[in-house]
Amino acid sequence: MKSAHCPTFSVEFFPPRDEPDEAVLWRAIRELEPLDPAYMSITYGAGGSSRDGTIRNIARVATDTTLVPMAHLTAVNHSVAELRNVIGHFAAVGVHNILALRGDPPGDPMGEWVPHPQGLHYAEELVRLVRELGDFCVGVSAFPYGHPRSADLDTDTHYLVRKLRAGADFAIAQLFFEAEDFLRLRDRVAAAGCEALMLPGIMPLTTPRTLRKTIELSGATPPAWLVDRLAPLEDDPKAFRAEGLDVVTELCSRLLAEGVPELHFYTFNRSKATRELVERLGLRSPAPPLAVAARP
Ligand code: FAD
Fold first, then answer.
1. Residues paired with 137 in a beta bridge
2. Which cofactor does it need (predicted)?
3. 3 occurs within a structural domain
4. Which residues 6+ apart lie within 8 Å of 71 measured at CB?
5. Is 12 a catalytic residue?
6. Which end of the chain has fewer beta carbons closer than 10 Å to its terminal beta carbon, N or C?
7. How many domains does the chain have?
């Protein structure tokens, strides 16, 4: 993973369902590549073709682009032997960054979690497995409002810190609404004596659908000020997008002012909103002067 002294950003995609989808994904990847994100990631689905899509496309990013690839990987429906196989494949194709996750039960995310009989119970074990298998940079997930299955924030922080100490280099936070929600998570981890890098996940709020998705994934109720700003614009796509991007720009500016070194954007396999935010926030690496660029 690139180290950055200036604030930077990373971008997240999901695996394509079919060929036209794959073309859309690759257009977005190519449009974001010149902005030099710290890394790009592709999420890992519940099974079958979606998993193949992650594995195939992340390998292509490693071989065909200048981007640093990070593969998401979950323990869902995988034996340890299969996980070893996938991790070994990532290393073989040049993917050395892995976001290690437990994943949710397929179908109903809040259904009973049943581990594979020869599999893993928690992300912490996957972090250890990835570390054991090679020289990987490992990330994990974190939840500003606590993971929905955690009894309370103290228990949530306890297990988050355990999985970071198991060998993770950083955590990416689930979506949230206010900078303070993320900063309090960062404080809880620091107060537990853990110095791992905490990065915020950011959804460009371009449509009512992206707002609904943010509410669903965050597991929290949006604050009244946000509803007041966006709800009246639900039937006016242009005005919603403009106000939504203003809201996100304000959130990101606050995070950067608090020393957050990198913002992780959910792209939904489109580049436009992320490009706009990167431009507004001044996150784009300046192009090197031509003489420097031409030097061997
Ligand atoms: P864990 O860290 O294992 O935690 C799960 C629950 O168990 C928590 O409540 C935790 O407190 C508790 N716990 C942890 N360890 C222990 C222990 N030793 N004993 C008792 N309790 C424990 N899902 C996908 O399917 N694919 C993806 O690509 C994907 N990408 C994601 C990216 C990000 C940035 C985020 C935030 C989430 C992502 N998810 C993805 C969703 C994630 O898989 C789910 O939220 C899942 O429910 C939790 O995964 P985890 O890795 O946080 O689990």
1. 97
2. FAD
3. no
4. 41, 42, 44, 54, 55, 58, 90, 95, 97, 98, 99
5. yes
6. C
7. 1
